[in-house]
Write a structure and sequence with these properties.
The protein is mostly helical. The protein has two helices and no strands.
Length: 108
Amino acid sequence: MGKIDVFLERENVMGRWRSRMLLGLTMYFAGFATAIYALAPAPESAGNSDAVAYHSRIGSELNSRSEKFAIVFNSQMRKCLSFAEEKVVEVSEVVKAKLIEHQSDKTK
């Protein structure tokens, strides 16, 4: 009876693995299908010129905000990089001084 219980237990584990894999693949493809649907272009003959104008206005506002954000982010990132470069130079000088001090202590 022990061998049968082990076999059934192993089948249960394999069944869970298969169920998890099936669920994972289903969710993956559902997300992929949703992304394709969301990114697909709307047909031009929709007849909603007000909606198209509204969406184009919103898109241009988002684009200008995005450009402003990119300019500010770029300037702040450059400040951060220049600060990091300065600190690297300072740390390298300290490390060189410590190495020279350590080597001079070894030779004494």
